[in-house]
Amino acid sequence: MKRVLLLLICFLLLSQPVNCSSSLSFNSSTPLCHSHQSSALLHFRNSFSVGDSNVYCDYYSYPPKNSWKMGTDCCGWDGVTCDPMTGHVIAVDLSCSRLQGPIHPNTTLFSLRHLQRLNLAHNYFYPSEISSKFGGFANMTHLNLSESYVAGNFPSEISHLSKLVSLDLSLNIGIMRIETPSLKRLVQNLTHLTELVLNDVDMSSVSPNSFMNLSSSLTSLSLSGCGLKGRFPDNIFHLPNLQLLDVSSNYNLTASLPTHNWSTPLKSLDLSTTKFPIDLPNLISNLKSLKALYLSNCNFTGSLNPTFLSNLTQITSLDLSYNYFGGQFPWSLLNNAGLTSLDLSGNNFTGQLPNLSTNWTQVSSSNSSSNSESVSQIPSKLVYLFLSQNLLNGTIPSWLYDIPSLQELYLNNNQLTGQIDEFQHDSLRYLVLSNNNLHGPLPISISKLVSLFRLDISFNNLSGSVEPNIFTNLKRLSEVDLSHNPLLSFHTYSYNIADYTLPNLQDLSLSSCNISEFPHFLKSTENLISLDLSNNQINGSIPTWLLEVKMDSLYYLNLSYNSLARIGHLPWKNLQVLDLRSNLLEGPLPVPPLYTYFFSVSRNNLTGEIPLLICNLSSLQYLDLSYNHLSNMIPPCLGNLSNHLIDLDLQSNNLHGTIPSTFAKGCYLRSLKLNGNQLEGSLPQSLVHCKNLEVLDFGNNKINGTFPLWLENLPKLQVLILRSNNLHGAIGNPKYKFPFPNLRIIDLSHNEFHGLLPTNFFKYLKAMKNSNADKGGMKYMGDRYYQDSVTVVIKGFFLDLVKIQSLFTTIDFSNNNFEGEIPKAIGELQSLKGLNFSHNNLSGHMPPSLGNLTNLEWLDLSSNKLTGEIPIQLVEITSLAILNLSENYLFGQIPQGKQFNTFTNDSYNGNLGLCGFPMTKACGNDKGQQPPPSSTTQEDDFKFENGFNWKVVLLGYSCGFMFGLGLGYLVFSRGKPKWLVNIVYGGRHNKVQRSKKNAHGRTR
Length: 1004
Hints:
By secondary structure, the chain is mainly beta.
C-alpha cells in the first residue's frame, strides 16, 4: 500500500523536482517475496532428491539451482521471478535441476496461485501422474513439463488455462497419453495458444481431425512420434501464423500437401518418416519463407534432381537422409553460404566431395563432367554435417577441417581414403569417421578439441601409436572408439595418472588395437558404462588396481579374444554384459555379478562343475559355457531359469548325467545346445513348454529312446540335431497337421533309427520348400546379443557355421537303418542345400523328382541298395558341388553335361553296372572315355571316413554356397577364430547422438 501511495504522489507532482527513484530504491531493498511462497518453494524443492545429470542438460551445461536458502529473498533465487509490484512469485524455472522423485498431489507448488510461467523440464518425476491441479493456475501462460517423466492420461483440467500461450509436454515417451475428448477441449479452449509441443506423447487413439480447430494464432506445432494415424487435416497448412510444423515419426499419418496458392509463413517443416506424398519441387516453390526442411525416410513422388537442389539457397537446415537416393553427390547444396545443417545420410550417393578453397574455385577435375559448375563459397556457417552410409570415395577435402562453427561431422560407412588431416578449430563435439578406408596416424589436433564429446574412428586402417596424453585436455569426452584399426598401437602406460583423467568417459572401445595390458588411465575413470578391450594381446589377469576402481556404472565389459589366464571376483555390481570368450582361463567357472544378463566364457580351459550359484542370477538371459572342460552334472536348477533364459550353450564339455527335466510353462528358451558331452537318458518332454525354441542341438551324447515326436509341436523350431546318440526305432507319422513348419536343418545321423523314411514329415517341411523365401539379403539366426552357431558334417568333414544363415537348409539321415524307397516328396524341398541318406538300407530307384532340387549343392546316397539308372533330371542341378552315389547297384549310362562333367570315378565306385564318362567302362559300342586333363591331374586324395574322396569337392565345386569361405562365416570346428569381430557388439548401450534440432532435444 505504501508503494502505491508513493507512486500516486509522484504522478501528481510531476512538475515538482521530486526524486521518485530515490524514494523507491529505499523500499526496493526490502524483501519482496512473500514468506508463505518462499516456504512453498523450498518445501517443493526439498521433496526431491538430486539425481544424475540429464544428458540433454549436460549438453547445454545447465547448472542445478543452488541459491535457494531459507531467510533469503526468494525473488533473487535462481529460476524464480516475482511481480515487482506485488512480490508474488510469477515464474519458476527448475529445468535441468536433477530433481528426482514423484510430484505428490498435495505438493506446495500448487499453492502458488499467481504463477504465470512454470518450467519443470528435464527432471525425473516418475512415477508421478500428471495432476489435474495443474489446471488451477488461472494466470498461467507458459507450462513446460518436457522430459519430466510425468505419466498417465492428460487431465482435461489443463484446458481451463485459457491464458495459456505455450504448452510443452514432449519427450515423456510412452508414459503420457492424450485421449480424444481431452484434446478436443484443449484445442477449443486455448484460443491464445501460439506454441504446442506434444512430441512422443501417446495419441495413438486420437483422430487427427481433433486438431482442426487449433488457434489461428498458433506459430509452432510439434507432434513428432505421437502414434497419429489417418489423414492430417488440410487446414493446418493454411494457419496464417504457423512458422514451425513437425509431424515426423508418425508412421501411418498421411495428408495432401497444397499444390498451389499455398500462402504460409512456414519457416520449419518436418515430415520425416510419415506417409505424406512429397513433391519436392512443388513443396519448395510454395514455401518461400522456409529455412529448415526435414524429409528423412519419406515417400517422394519423383526422383531427386541435383539441378533443382542448387536452388535451395534460402534453406539453412536440410535433411534428406534415408531416402536411398542415388547418383552423384549433390555437391551444389554446398553453394549455400547460410547453410548450418545438412543431413544426406543413408542414401547411395557416389563420387567425391568437392575440393574447395577459401577462394572461389571450381570443383576438382577428378569429379565427373556433370560436376563442373562453379561453387561460390564454402558453407562457413556449417554446424552439422551428416553424410554417413553412402558410397562416397576419395579423400576428406581440406575445407572440412577449416570450418570454425562445425560441431558434428559424420562421414562413417563410406569408402573414403587418405589420411585424416589436422583440424584448424576446436568447435567439434562429435567426430565419427568409422567404417572407411582411412589410413595414417591419428591427427595431433585431436588433443585440442576441448569440446569433443564423441570420437569414433573405428574400422579403418590407421597406423602409428596413440599416446594417452592425446586425451589430456578432453574433459568432456564421453565416447571413444578406435577399435579395429589393425596397424594402430595404443600405449596403455601413464607417467602421471593425474594428468590423464577423463571424468566424463562412459564408453571406451579399443578392440583390435594391439594392446598388451589394461590402460592405466582407467584408474581415474569412475563413470565408465561400457569397456571393450577384445581382440588384443592382454594376458595374465585383471590387475588389482583396476579391481579397486569404483565403477558402479559399468554394465558392459568385453575382454574376449585375449590371453587372460585368470579371472577373479569382479566387484562391479551392476555389470550386465560380461564377455570372456576365447581366452586361456583356467580353474573353476567364475560366477558373474548378480544382475548379469549376458555371460559368455566359451572356448577357455575351465574345469570343475557348474556352480549352483549360477542359478541365483535372476536376470540371466544368455549363458554360453561351451568349449571348456566342465564336468559333473548339469544343475537341475538351470531348467528353472528357462522362464528368463533365452540362449543356453553348454556344448563341448565333459558333462554327464541326464538333461534337466524342469522346463516350466512360459519357458523363454530360444536356443539350447548340449552337443559333445556324455549326457544320458531320454530327452525331457517338458521342452514342449518352450514355444520359442529355434535351435535344439543334442548331438554327440549318449541319449537313448525313440524319436521325440512331440517336438513337432514347437512352431518356431529351425534346427534339430540329434546326431551320434543311441536313439532307435521308427520315426512314425506326425500327430499334427503341419509338423515342423520352420525346420531348416535336421541331422539324425549315426543313430539306430529304422523303418521307412518319414514321407509324411517331408511333405510339410514348409521352410525347405520355398527357395525364394530369403532372397531379400543376408539374414542370420539369433538376435543382437547372440547369434547361433552349429556344426555341419559332410562325410566326416566338420565345419562350424559361426553364424547360421537363414537360407541354409540340410537333411542328414546317414548311418542309420532306414529302408524302402526314397520318397518322391523330397523333390518338393527346393531350398535344400544338402541331402545325405548314405549308409542305410534304402532300395528302389532314385526318384526323378530329385532333379527339382535346383539349389542342391551336395548329395550323398552312397552305401545303400539303390538300383536302376541315374535320373537324367539330375543334370539340371547346376549348383551341385558334391555327388556320391558309390556302393549301390546302379546301372546304365551316367548322365552327361554341366556339373556331371566334373565328377570323377569316386562318385560312382562300387556300381558295377554303370558306364560312360568318367568310368573307363564304355556303354554299348562306345569306347571308354577318359576324364579331361583338368580332371586327371590330382593331388593325393584326402580320404574321409567311409571312403569319400575330397577331390570330388575340389572338382565339383563351381559357385556353390557351402564353400563360399569368402562369406566369412565358415571356419574349421577346431580353431579359435581370432579374426571374428565381437558379435555381442549390438548389446552395448545406445550411443547418444545429437541431431540438428536441438530445440526439441531430438537424438539421432
